[in-house]
Amino acid sequence: MAQQHGIIVLFDVENALRTRSLEGNTYWFDNMKLFGSEGVGTERLETIVPGTHYLDGSQATEQVLNWLPAALGSIPPTVPRNYLAEQGRADDRRTLDELAGLDAAGGVNETDVRRLQGRVGKRARKQASGRGLTDSKLLDVTGRTTTSSDAYNYPAPVITDITGPAVTEKIMYPAQYGSPDMIYDGWYWAATVDTSRPGVYRYTMHVQLHELVERNDELVWESVDLTCESSLKIINDPKRNGFTGAGLGVLPMPPVPVTG
User: Fold this and answer.
1) CA distance 1 to 151
2) What are the structural domains, with CATH classification, of the chain?
3) Please, which domain of life does this record's source organism belong to (predicted)?
C-alpha cells in the first residue's frame, strides 16, 4: 500500500496580492518531519520521500503526495460548506429583529437606519464573464458580515497546475482528482512518486488567488495567478512504521488482561 504524504501550504493572500508575488508569502508543512523533511514551516520545504521496496529488496514506486492549500488568517476551509451563507443570513435576521424592535419601541430614525445598513454587509459578485466565485456577502475572519473591502475573509487558494523538473523528469506524476470530500470543492491535487531514482527534485506549484475589486459600484472577485516552488528529496531508506520505527507490519498490541 502506498504511503501518503500530506503537504499543507499556507498562503499570506493579502500580502501576496499586494506584492503580486508568493515570494516570502508561503508556509509549507508536511507529515514527514520525523523522517527528515527540512524547512517545515518555511517557504523552503524539502519533503523527504523514503523508498518503498519489494520483498526481493528492489526499490518500488509506490509513494503518494497530497497537497492541501489554505489562506493564512482566514476562516478554515474545514468549516461546513454552508457556513458563509448561513452567517450572512443569520446577520440579516439579527438586523431585521433589531429593526422591528426599534419600530415597536416608538419608531426608527435616520441614525438607526444608517447604523443597521452598516450591519448588512456588501455582496461580492463574480466576474461579468461568468468566471469567479459564487455571489456571497463579505465576512470578516470572525464570520460576521462586513462592509469593508479592507478587512474581509479571503477565499481559499486554488491549485491550478504542478510543473517543474520533478514532473518533466518523470519523478512524479501529478493529477487532479475528484473526491467526495466537500472541503476543497470535491477535487484535489495528488501525485505518485517514482522512488527508484534518489535525489533532490524541484517542482513549481501554480496557484490562483482571488482579489476583491470595486467596479461600477459593485465588488467583484478577480483571479490572480501566481507560482511558488518546493522540492522532493527521494532517499534509499525504506518507508517504516512511525509508531515502532521498524518496517511496515502488524502493530504491536498491548496484552489483554485475563480475568478469572
Assistant:
1) 45
2) 3-74+156-238 (2.60.40.3910), 83-137 (no CATH)
3) Bacteria
